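Hi there,

I know you've been waiting on this one. I reran it after we fixed the sequence typo, so this is the corrected version. Both the input and the resulting structure follow.
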Amino acid sequence: MVSEYDDRVAVVGLAGRFPGADSVPELWRLLRDGVDAVHDYTEAELRQLGIAPGLLDDPALVRSGGVLPGGALDGIAGFDADLFGFDAPDAALLDPQHRLFLESAWEALEDAGCDPRRYDGDVGVFTGISTNRYFLFHLLGNPAASDGRPDDWEAQLATRPGADYLPAQVAYRLGLRGPAMAVQTACSSSLTAVCVAAQSLLDYACDLAVAGGASVSLPRHRHTPEGLVSPDGRCRAFDAAAAGTGYSTGAAAVVLKRYADVDPDRDRVHAVLRGWAVNNDGAHRAGFEAPGADGQAAVIAEALARAAVSPHEVGYLEAHGSATVVGDAIELSALHQVWRTAGAAPAGSCALGTVKANIGNLDAASGIAGLVAAVRAVAEGTVPAHVQFHEPHPELGIETGPFAVPRTLRPWPHDGSRLAGVSSFGLGGSNAHVVLEQAARPAPASTAGWHLLPLSAHSPAALAEACRRLAEHLETAGPGTHLADLAYTLATGRRVLPYRAAIAAHEPAEAAAALRRAAAGPQRPPLPAAAGPELHAAAESWLRGEDTDWTSYLKNRPGRVCTLPAYPFRRRRHWIDPPAHRAADRGGPA
């Protein structure tokens, strides 16, 4: 049940880059197929990343971690500076976490069908990121990064390395006018940012909210026995071989909207946030760095109560999954504490997993990665396997209660509406939990007739690549693909850029062929005469570079927002190597 006042929040946009996956659909395929995406670095890759010889010689160095597609360095050094209005020197000084999140925010707004310049409302942005290791290890004290002021690092500290400036950068570069807030709660930062964003929507501080986080983790961590860091970079949460967490690089963002404001004919909803809560463990724990079972139980219980959901209705729990014996034991103790309040539950009635098993621990961005994975799970109705789980840890008693760790891809454990919980717990005791529900499936609309597909980009090369990507999407898409949805999404939900193309078609194969011709250029493919004068007039207006009146053109035409290939960023390397004196030492702090 929900209250008379609808306090649900819709997830209308998803985006991200993850180890082994350049997009959310690629992440879901990775999870569905049970892929271990953690990368084992070669000696050459470690040297290319600026790892000092002294640290390379340390046998405790963890030589594994999650790497973005494109390569250990290129995955984080590449950035489409021109598109976001940076010159090359400023781009090279920009925290790679800022770059990753700027791209994820852009893509998430595209996925939500929102062009901020045309959106009639305030868009907020809420972010959490990790320590700026690029500044610490590559820029600080480096003459190549001194900006002509080799001794004035205080001036650079004012604007360059801080997490505070990421939301303001996003707001400035994308033109967002709502609240722009940095949310820093260590590992739980990005999920806490989602909770703050959701509450801001209900408080009418904004009308749409972009929330999430980013983390760039360079391979400088050392393993110590019974310490925090796994010796091989793998997170084996709840498994007998669990030996710590493994840090990875990635970024993700969601776009949120008040559910009451969702347009059932135009919006696409990935999932619904039913409840959320944030708290801290306080002093009732073994030490500052230790988690607290009572605090974790309280935050989960509060989120469930806000959602008006019984624990027994939850079919999947995306766990924090620290992969340390103490952390896993405390997390399970908290879960059992909450589930016991609802009475006895059937054994194995709630699947327990963590995306960290596949892609590693994204630190401040780990919570948003878990949320994205859970959104896809409730939407698809399947629970991914825990790829690192082979034998339950004997001290946890995990198989004696309502929780079961899936070793293979499995169907949703419950009938009825699918509900999931997502936990993220920060070092220092800051906890966040979100309760998700599957979205209602919209009724299909009539999509017969001719459809105009307008595309634009920042350069001719990007425009050609956008045409190619959309053609490939149509060539591989299933029968549920409707050109009316593509036409609506492209016309209303993409930023208008100077280089443009337009094609008309009445079925996907025809559209794919026309897009291939447009990508090949240089001549624009002619529009079919049968498409009609109204379509021709809109297309000509678009191609002339005018501010086409898409609202009037689409007023009586079907179509809703759909997921399409993201903008083809033209990334170039913007990177400064560590200073020579640091390249000779042991690499600084881990």
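Quick highlight: The radius of gyration is 24 Å.

Best,
R. S.
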